[in-house]
Amino acid sequence: MALERTISIIKPDAVAKNVIGEIYSRFEKAGLKVVAAKMKHLSKAEAEGFYAVHRERPFFNALVEFMISGPVMVQVLEGEGAVLKNRELMGATNPKEAAAGTIRADFADSIDANAVHGSDSLENAAIEIAYFFPATDVYAR
Ligand code: UDP
Fold it and tell me: Span of the secretion signal (predicted)?
């Protein structure tokens, strides 16, 4: 497996539940290192831009409104196979279908308010990292 970097976002629902630390702990226990991080209250334009691929989907407006409803915690995770590893830690998009012990099974309430985002491919990870962090703000550790 190759050393990879991926984007994780702790969404407004999970930030409001005060479980940032519990989620970080899962990353660290799985061997993923936080190499960049910031708390951010996204503007509407930033949320729309981030989720541009979903623009035509029926849930797009609700998703954007949810993502700007409070601050999010954005981090770059680094580790062997980081993209897939983070997706496994997150669990299925719909928390009702998420495997026991995953972040979404434990902290998400619904498919809309589902606690975390994670890049779904290495290609998208590179795009999403660049969307939030200048290269100088991502640290080798
Ligand atoms: N989403 C939603 N309703 C749906 C499907 C998706 O609100 O029916 C939201 C949900 O927050 C999800 C995001 O849109 O996390 C992006 O959807 P995607 O299918 O890419 O899921 P993910 O990669 O986040 O698991």
Answer: none
* Ligand 1 atom having least distance to the Cα of 92: 25
Is 54 annotated as catalytic?
A: no
This prediction has a pTM of 0.98
Say yes or no: CB of residue 120 within 6 Å of ligand 1: yes
Domains defined along the chain, listed by start: 3-137 (3.30.70.141)
Q: What is the 3-state secondary structure (H, E, C) of 58-109?
A: CCHHHHHHHHCCCCEEEEEEEEECHHHHHHHHHCCCCHHHCCCCCHHHHHCC
**Alpha-carbon gap, residue 66 to 120, rounded angstroms:** 20
Instruction: Check 5, 26, 85, 117 and give the catalytic one.
Output: 117
21-74 pLDDT, tens per residue? 999 999 999 999 999 999 999 999 999 999 999 999 999 999 999 999 999 999
- Distance between CA 99 and CA 49 in Å, rounded? 30
